[in-house]
Automatic annotation (TrEMBL):
Keyword presence, Signal: yes
Cited InterPro entries: Beta-barrel_TonB, Beta-barrel_TonB_sf, CarboxyPept-like_regulatory, Plug_dom, Plug_dom_sf, TonB-dep_rcpt-like
Keywords, alphabetical: Cell outer membrane, Membrane, Receptor, Signal, TonB box, Transmembrane, Transmembrane beta strand, Transport
Family named by the database record: Belongs to the TonB-dependent receptor family.
One Pfam match: Plug
Native organism: Jiulongibacter sediminis
Signal sequence extent: 1-19
Gene3D superfamilies with a match to the protein in the record: Carboxypeptidase-like, regulatory domain (2.60.40.1120), TonB-dependent receptor, beta-barrel domain (2.40.170.20), TonB-dependent receptor, plug domain (2.170.130.10)
Keyword Membrane: yes
Limits of the TonB-dependent receptor plug domain: 142-222
Cellular component annotations (GO), alphabetically ordered: cell outer membrane
Residue stretches making up the TonB-dependent receptor-like beta-barrel domain: 313-756
Protein's name in the database: TonB-dependent receptor
GO molecular function list: siderophore uptake transmembrane transporter activity
Length: 796
């Protein structure tokens, strides 16, 4: 009996020991040994993160499951540390020192959401890019460019160097939801696609979702680019800035109440258009400026409540001596101007270590303008348009060792001005106002991520959205079987301001599964359905800043995208190499296309210029990256195709390509990207980028018609030819803190060469008739190497 009691007590003590495993310690700054309050301590168990935050003295204590534990310690502005504890082991009173990102030698490469998360998490097609990675990549004119950089990832392309956005897995540019601190950006580039609109010094990281998109995101059919801005530093005053051949930038961070509240202001401006003729003599008459700015405040009210507020603005001005295409206007010069004004406020209440609630309110305003001056009077004539989006959102987040749950509700209001022609004092041009559009989008969502076993993990999301197209509006009815035009109108109905015109609704399920084959290797499967109620209508290869935004209505149905993804993921020992291969198939209903000869400018009834069809896209993406060592980087190859079909038009004249499949404007079957960095020492690194893409399609006339002694092109098949293949090599040399010692003032130089071997890549092919002779012309953006030098500094 005594032996049995001893055995029983031994078993009880063993069980108690298992329940009492924990990790405790203090998180410190590696240089000053200052405690870091609010650092996150996360325990990764079966693909799940649970944990706590450090207190005012930097101390923490967290219980551990009885298993091999992966613990991450992270703090904004510092390099994360990882600790791996064997099964049954605790870690007590550890002193964990974090190094500031600016002091780190080793490059932070593109990752799949953290240590081993590309293998562990049941999520496909998710990438995260750290701003420190972007700073080391070669760039045009020395400007850090988010959108040019993400084109180095598999599945992300564009139609060329002057494209106003990117195409992701067969999606159009307007099918990407682009967020800066949770506010939408309707035009993501400056100077017609040459530069991104994000303030580089304020950016923390970019999360790209092109496979499994969390249910908290909605409103677009292809992908999400979530650009997170840094939070203000409540501990110290800091100034950052830089100079390049194109722009100047400055960021000032100032604590208001130490350890409680802080604010920063960051901005960038470019007034160096005098350099354009050195790139191409044809650019001599062009005047161009751009800029953006952000202000962000943070207030830790108490241990349970925080408040943040962000304001963001950007502005572009571009003037050319080309004649305007405004109706009934003969002008001298034309200028394009557009600006964005966004603002958001967030309140977060922490209920406990596992649960918090967040409330937010947001407004986003985008206002583009085309203008010219009359020849005789010099009177300005302006075509103005705009989009305003307002949103309120409430969400709750909960996590424990096995589950991670987020749920909430969102109300979004859209107001659109499709176009207003303001003639000013002109007597020859009339005032024109196209009908204003508005709509409400209601949505509720829930995301759940959980582990079934050590080998199987799932993520499941469900979003329900309801869109209401609202008046005032005049809605036409057209004769069935006839083209939608002024001659087939049966009747029209007027709706009052705010009256419901048309509504659409539906569920948007999101699903992901991960099965671990062995340690460091897994397979995944995912499905995504997304609905889009707001889109661009344009007949250009890539939308321009003044392209028209359009809500879904009686005649224009919302786009609905179905995406199936499968992949194999492998991490090699010591975490040096990481490899992935993903395949996908996307089918989208109700894509927007245009009739032959369509004209959207000041169009009162845009449905008369549009047709809707379907799109299919499929591809295989492969990527291998090296994450540690003197040489780091990645290379990837993508095979992808995208086709559209318009076969159910009301009349045969509205069919595109006779109702057959045709390649989309951005269909580029083969893409290869390589980015390599050599870290020579703490102060010098060299980077190379190589890019190759199949040439994009364009439409070439099959003949010419002679009418009144003038030749006019005759088109048969859309996108029947391709421009030559695109390839480019870039180089950069980064010199960090060249004074060779650490001090309050830290500076670095970035020397880069864009298009190193002077490849004359063709952006587009167009046809021009002169002296009754039609010729094909090629447009190049960068025909020579672009050499740049930038200097960046930090003072604190």
């Amino acid at each position: 009996m005594r032996k049995i009691s001893i055995i029983f007590l031994f078993l009880l003590s063993s069980m108690a020991l298992k329940a009492q495993l924990f990790c405790s310690g203090t998180v410190l700054d590696s240089l000053s040994n200052k405690p870091l309050e609010g650092a996150s301590v996360l325990v990764n168990y079966q693909g799940r993160n649970t944990g706590t935050k450090t207190d005012a003295e930097g101390k923490f204590r967290v219980e551990l499951p009885y298993a091999e534990n992966v613990i991450q310690i992270r703090y904004t502005g510092y390099v994360s540390e990882w600790i791996i504890l064997q099964e049954g082991k605790s870690l007590i009173d550890a002193a964990i020192k974090l190094e500031e990102v600016s002091n780190r030698l080793e490059q932070v490469v593109v990752t799949s959401k953290g240590f081993d998360q590309n293998v562990r998490k049941p999520v496909l097609g998710a990438n995260s890019i750290n701003i420190k990675t972007l700073e080391k990549l070669p760039s045009a004119f020395g400007e850090i460019d988010l959108f040019r950089s993400i084109q180095m990832l598999p599945g992300v392309t564009s139609v060329g160097e002057a494209s106003n956005g990117v195409n992701i897995r067969g999606g159009t540019t307007d099918q990407n939801l682009i967020l800066i601190d949770d506010t939408p950006v309707f035009n993501p580039t400056h100077m017609f696609g040459l530069f991104s609109v994000t303030p580089p010094d304020a950016v923390r990281n970019l999360d790209l979702y092109k496979g499994n998109v969390p249910a908290r995101y909605g409103g677009r059919a292809a992908s999400v680019m979530d650009i997170a801005l840094q939070n203000p530093d409540v501990t110290k005053f800091r100034v950052k800035g830089g100079l390049s051949l194109i722009s100047e930038k400055l960021m000032v961070n100032a604590p208001i109440v130490k350890d409680k509240a802080a604010i920063y202001v960051a901005g960038r401006g470019s007034y160096h258009d005098f350099l354009l003729p050195f790139i191409d003599s044809d650019l001599e008459a062009i005047k161009a400026t751009f800029g953006e700015g952000v202000a962000k405040g943070f207030w830790r009210i108490n241990d349970k409540n925080t408040l943040t507020a962000t304001g963001y603005v950007n502005q572009d001005f571009f003037q050319t001596n080309l004649l305007t295409n405004l109706p009934n206007v003969v002008g001298t010069t034309t200028y394009f101007e557009h600006n964005t004004v966004n603002a958001i406020g967030k309140f977060t209440h922490v209920i406990n270590n596992q649960m918090d609630v967040q409330l937010s309110a947001m407004v986003a305003d985008y206002r583009p303008t085309i203008a010219t001056r009359e020849l005789d009077t010099n009177n300005p004539i302006q075509l103005k348009s705009g989009v305003r989006q307002r949103q309120i959102k409430a969400s709750t987040y909960y996590q424990n060792q096995k589950h991670k749950t987020e749920f909430g509700a969102v109300l979004t209001n859209y107001q659109i001005n499709p176009g207003t022609l303001d003639p000013g004092a002109s007597t020859s041009v009339n005032f024109i106002q196209t009908p204003q559009e508005q709509g409400n989008e209601w949505a509720a969502f829930v995301d759940e991520e959980f582990s079934v076993s050590s080998k199987l993990a799932l993520t499941a999301g469900l979003r329900y959205s309801l869109f209401q197209n609202l008046g005032a509006a005049n809605v036409r009815s057209y004769r069935e079987g006839q083209p939608r035009d002024d001659f087939s109108v049966i009747e029209s109905v007027d709706y009052q301001d705010g009256e419901l015109v048309k509504s659409y609704r539906g569920f948007e399920p999101r699903f992901g599964l991960r099965y671990s084959i062995q340690e460091g290797t897994s397979v995944k499967l995912g499905y995504n359905l997304m609905r889009q109620y707001l889109q661009i209508v344009s007949n250009t290869t890539t939308p321009i800043p003044t392209s028209r935004w359009k809500t879904s209505d009686t005649h224009i149905k919302p786009q609905v995208s179905h995406l199936v993804t499968a992949g194999l993921y492998k991490n090699f020992p010591q975490g040096v190499y990481e490899a992935t291969i993903e395949g996908y198939y996307r089918f989208t209903n109700n894509i927007i296309d245009y009739k032959p000869g369509a004209d959207f400018l000041l169009q009162m009834y845009p449905e008369t210029q549009l047709v809707q069809g379907v799109s299919k896209a499929y591809g295989i993406e492969t990527m291998i990256s090296k994450k540690k060592g003197v040489m780091t980087g990645w290379l990837n190859y993508t095979f992808a195709r995208t086709f559209n079909k318009v076969s159910e038009a009301a009349d045969i004249t509205e069919l595109v390509n006779g109702g057959d499949w045709y390649a989309a404007n951005y269909d580029r079957p083969h893409s290869f990207n390589s980015s390599v960095e050599f870290s020579v020492d703490k102060h010098n690194s060299f980077s190379f980028n190589f890019v190759y893409n199949t040439g994009r399609p364009y439409t070439e006339p099959v003949g010419f018609v002679n009418y009144l002694n003038s030749l006019y092109p005759f088109y048969d098949q859309r996108n029947n030819k391709r421009v030559p293949d695109y390839h480019r090599l870039d180089f950069s040399w980064n010199i960090m803190n060249p004074s060779m010692r650490d001090k309050r003032w830290k500076g670095n130089f970035a020397f880069s060469v864009y298009n190193l071997y002077a490849r004359k890549n063709v952006y587009s092919v167009f046809f021009r008739t002169e002296n009754n002779l039609t010729k094909a012309y090629r447009l190049h953006i960068f025909k020579i190497p672009v050499v740049s030098l930038a200097y960046n500094f930090t003072f604190e």
